[in-house]
Design brief:
Blueprint lengths: L1 E2 L3 E3 L3 H18 L3 H20 L5 E9 L2 E10 L3 H9 L11 H13 L3 H11 L3 H6 L12 E4 H9 L4 H12 L1 H5 E9 L2 E8 L1
């Protein structure tokens, strides 16, 4: 496995710039063809942009790895907002909805933020504010998890659900995927949640 050195990021300008510099260095070291290099850089930019848009205290490890010719952009969350901060954010919205969860990467961000709450707390927020669990449930791998049980969400599963469903909401979701840089360049996006730890893997085509 050819792996980029892990970079600790917090969403600030300095850590984002450091991470992008490391990405550029890694891409050059792999001597990728131009199209592949551009696509990998774009996915990394979108991922780091998502982190910058997150609210609350956030730290994560970020890196790229290659195995058998397949590149994976990785993000492992260590700390993030608690239930109180999430409620405070949502309560300022007149509609009490999560206005930040717009676009495909906005929804991935919401999965990450909700995932590091306990499942009980997440369920309460869903009932009160409508936090994006309809989206989340459409991409779950396996049955909906009980409290404390590891959870896995997959773009591949989400795409399959959209393709097999009808209605205006599904059409909007499909259109959203078509407009997303990451969704168009990724073979799959997998979000795993276990014991207040989130692991994001973007598998590039």
């Amino acid at each position: 496995m050819k792996k980029m050195s892990e970079i600790r990021i917090n969403g600030g300008d300095e850590s984002t710039e450091e991470a992008l510099n490391a990405v550029d260095k890694y891409i050059r070291s792999r001597a990728l063809e131009n199209k592949k290099a551009i696509h990998l850089r774009l996915v990394c930019e979108e991922t780091l942009g998502m982190v910058r848009a997150m609210t609350g205290d956030f730290e994560a490890l970020f890196w790229i790895e290659e195995e058998n010719g397949e590149f994976r952009v990785r993000l492992q969350a260590e700390t993030i907002m608690d239930k109180g901060k999430k409620e405070a954010l949502l309560s300022v919205s007149t509609s009490h909805e999560n206005a930040a969860a717009k676009g495909f990467m906005g929804k991935i961000s919401d999965i990450i933020q909700n995932g590091l709450l306990s499942f009980d707390e997440s369920a309460k927020l869903q009932q009160e504010y409508g936090v994006g669990y309809d989206f989340m449930s459409m991409g779950l791998m396996g049955e909906y998890p009980a409290a404390g049980v590891p959870m896995m969400w997959s773009l591949e599963n989400y795409r399959g659900t959209i393709q097999d469903s009808e209605g205006e909401e599904m059409e909007d979701a499909s259109d959203e995927l078509e407009k997303s840089i990451v969704a168009s360049l990724a073979k799959d996006v997998i979000v795993g949640v276990k014991n207040d730890h989130v692991d994001l893997t973007i598998i590039c085509k």
